[in-house]
Amino acid sequence: MVLNRANLVVMADEHGTIVVIEDDPHISDLVDMYLRKDGFRVLQAQDGEKGLEIIEREHPRLVVLDIGLPGELDGLEVCKTLRKTSSIPIVMLTARDDEVDRILGLELGADDYLSKPFSPRELVARIKAILRRSETQSTQTAQEIHIGSLTIDVLRHEVFIDGELVELATREFDLLEYLASHKGMVRSRQQLLDGVWGVGWYGDERTVDVHIRQLRKKLGDNLPLSTIWGVGYRLG
Ligand code: CA
């Protein structure tokens, strides 16, 4: 496989951080490479203690966790420990292809699992599906998003500048809410189309630009939105 370095630089970190806890460097490097190629920042840990330390420090979006780990904590223990304080998505990897491990992994609160050997593409696809799911859940529970002088009332579909209501069209609101729920992250035009207009909506990417222009017009300097040339947009 040929990796385009220029693309890697642009894409790195776009989708947030994933921690991979796996003692087999061959597997963790492979997973690392595939996730980076897809725009994630990847941090590796070779054992459970180190993994928990990194998670606490970096607040990643998701954890890939091998069950068989050296040291005091195996993957099941790490999962149990994480679940005491966090609902961070966890994908477990198991080398022992028996049901006990799988069921145990799921009962401990893991979001998904893969048996080795697995296809890295499949892992990336599962990770994306889990992240999409958990994003939808968190937008549903968050009622108000504050960004600078902007307040976005998610339930009422209303936006305020310093407490004053601003009239937005439905799509404009949806676009703003989507960007706000990915605060600090660059979203490509295609991601915005998928997230706001819906996957399978075969519109032109310029549709996004038109709506962004409207948002900028209506919200002015209150909208801390950057255009990332050749990539997309980032709010906050
Ligand atoms: Ca292992």
Report on the architecture of this protein:
With 236 residues, the chain is an alpha/beta fold. It folds into two domains: 2-136, 3-Layer(aba) Sandwich (Rossmann fold), CATH 3.40.50.2300; 141-235, Arc Repressor Mutant, subunit A. 45% of the residues lie in helices and 21% in strands. It is built from nine helices and twelve strands. It has helices at 5-11, 25-37, 48-58, 75-85, 99-107, 120-141, 170-180, 189-197, 206-219; strands spanning 17-21, 41-45, 62-66, 90-94, 112-115, 144-147, 150-153, 158-161, 164-166, 186-188, 225-228, 232-235. A five-stranded parallel beta sheet has the order 2-1-3-4-5, with helices on both faces. It has a four-stranded antiparallel beta sheet with strand order 6-7-8-9, with helices on one face. Strand 7 and strand 8 form a beta hairpin. Helix 7 crosses helix 8 (189-197) and helix 7 packs across helix 9. The protein is elongated and about 55 Å long. Mean pLDDT is 86; it is low at 1-11. The structure holds calcium ion (CA). Residues 23-24, 66, 68-69 line the site of calcium ion. Calcium ion (CA) binds at residues 23-24, 66, 68-69.
